[in-house]
Model the fold of this input.
Amino acid sequence: MRRLNPIYRTSLGLLTDLYQLTMAAGYWKTGRADWEAVFHLSFRENPFGGGFAIACGLAAAVDFLQAFSFDAEDRAYLAEQRGADGAALFDPRFLDHLAGRRFRCDLDAVEEGTVVFANEPLVRVRGPILECQLVETALLTMVNFETLIATKAARVVSAASGDPVIEFGLRRAQGIDGGLSASRAAFVGGCAGTSNTLAGRLFGIPVGGTHAHSWIMCFHDELEAMRAYAEALPNNCIFLVDTYDTLAGVHNAVRVGRLLRERGREMIGIRLDSGDLAALSAAARRILDEAGFPDAKIVASNRSRRIPDRGLEGRRGEDRCLGRWHSAGDCLRSASPGRGLQAGGHPAARRRGKTASSSRTTPPRRPRPASSRSAATRIAAEAIGDCLFDERPPVAGHAPGRRSPRWLAPCNSRRPAATTSWCRCFAAAVAATRRRRRRPRAAAATGDHPRDGSPPGFARRLPRLA
Done:
């Protein structure tokens, strides 16, 4: 997928915070630019007070990293920046160094759409600390926002109990890119479609929509408006019925539905947008069934930022579709992913002073994905994490001491060996746990780690996402 550069510009190297660039300049000046570091992106609390999150945003991050560079205009802008003394903030030699800098790090990430939990890594970047530092902010903003939206969408879809959920949050999203990113993330989170036609074109998401209250108000009365719409688009008739009186609107929709049927067409359904949606949907269902439209859908949309009322979703025979227009793109009061740091290839714990919050402490270890907090399965999860973040020997031709760019390796579409070894490792871990033996990480010495391929469900190579 290539969407960032056509929408914006060729170079997005400046999509970062200034302090990332000042630190990069410091690394270069002190000779630390190529020191190896490991950056992890994780979050401390599950969003919305829930028990999980849905990983998303990796595709945009991959696009960004593939084209990462600083063009002449970027360097000219940085050359204009001044320090407190009025002198140039950046050494011209450092800016020349940036001209030839490209992203050469390893990228490991949880596949989009994967259920993830607090304090486990979604993305890991390993390589020269200068490059890790420069891409940190961009990765945070891409993965943070889309993970948040995908999680919200998954919660709404779960509450809908199998009924399709349509996202139409563009009007309330955080700007143009916020709307596009939210539409894509909501689709990853389980939504059946979107109203955002640009997102539909860019990402191949099914689009849907009929008419709003302004259409009804444009005509002399509601019945005339519905008839006019049926004349104009007879194959797209979901009538909004609550502009004036909801149940009277349902009866008007039935009248127009009969006219459509006489012409060989069929009314798709109606939409409820206000009032007690559970009670109105039940009354509307009875009217539609009695009128001979048992297959007509009832689309429920509302402004609530909460998960929809269970009383509405529980009526499987009365509501066939849910429309959520702005909650998916307007996620407030929620946790945001943060990042952990390992510098120089060694775990670096963030020190906590007397006034520091314990929730902001970085543990002095390499975090791993985990799917459970129970003692029995945590050991197995750590072993699986070893597989997911398995270390490989350098590729021939790369400088000693440097990590090979694993994400540039050709994509191996056939992964039976990796899958088999991953399953063996998992089975061994579970068996060892049940026998209360030592931790199954020792399985690495027996060759059970998938050192020759990536485990299933783990997107670590760019060609697979391109």
About this structure: DSSP finds 16 helices and 13 strands in the chain.
